Amino acid sequence: MKETDIEVKGLIRKIIDKRIMEMKAGETSSDDLLGILLDSNYKEIKRHENNSSGLSIEEIIEECKLFYLAGQETAGNMLVWTMILLGQHTDWQTRAREEVLSVFGDKIPDIDGLNRLRTINMIFNEVLRLYPPVTALRRMIHKDTNLGNLRLQAQTMIQLNMLFFHHDLDIWGGDAHEFNPERFSEGVSKVTKGQTVYVPFGGGPRICIRQNFAMLEVKMALVMILQCFSFELSPSYSHAPYTVITLQPQFGAHLILHKL
Ligand code: HEM
């Protein structure tokens, strides 16, 4: 783990050094997240005319790591689980494609249209219920707390396993383990009756800061796939969800794609 961390930091540092050299040579580089971060940091340091304001290179590296790990694995796995489930439930794939074609035809999707995709929203809610990329939330107890019959001492770390909430028969009904996006037809709060039991993006002050962006980017990818391909699960697919930081299909997502 330590070796990997050193390697990752080294790789990011190389990218940053290259960008800083480009910036110093007057080339603009603020059209992506790293560019914006370096650009605003550089201006901040210049404004205060010293190096103690702004972020250090180490802090920029940590920001890059956080955004990459928090953003790439999660959204990637959400798309993978969506394709697996739509490859299994081709009736929902057809419904999703019909919606996409009625909103966009074969045009490149735009934000307005993406925000109007009701069926795809229902599908995403159901995918994130069954296979939330992040399966557990951790919280530190700051002061001695009574929780039912439990006495939790300050500094105790507790872990909430969201798979339990997301599969609870009392909340979701007898088909809790099945893929049924229809349950979200009237929105999340209707089905959860306002309880905090559906938390794919966490909750409270540390809720995922990019949940809207994540929904949008995965939607964009799925829409473009649905416009060009139909897909089904390959007979070689073996269903084995397992968690390595995020929830992933252990033996990969074997899908057969057909060009439309
Ligand atoms: C489907 C995609 C995603 C899922 C399921 C997801 C889920 C989560 C969850 C469960 C948390 C912890 C919240 C808590 O403890 O209450 C979290 C935090 C976070 N997420 Fe996401 N996330 C996704 C995409 C993204 C993306 C695309 C980014 C950034 C580009 C991102 C950035 C972050 C950051 C920075 C935090 C830490 C927030 C904090 O500690 O204050 N996430 N995410």
Automatic annotation (TrEMBL):
Its GO CC terms are: membrane
Q: Which residues form the signal peptide?
A: none
This protein is called: Cytochrome P450
Keywords from UniProt, A to Z, are: Heme, Iron, Membrane, Metal-binding, Monooxygenase, Oxidoreductase, Transmembrane, Transmembrane helix
Cofactors that this protein relies on: heme
**InterPro entries given for it?**
Cyt_P450, Cyt_P450_E_grp-I, Cyt_P450_sf, Cytochrome_P450_Monooxygen
Any single Pfam family the record assigns to this protein: p450
Which positions in this protein are listed as binding heme?
208
The cellular location(s) given in this protein's UniProt record come to: Membrane
SUPFAM superfamilies, sorted: Cytochrome P450 (SSF48264)
Record-stated family: Belongs to the cytochrome P450 family.
A molecular function GO annotation: heme binding
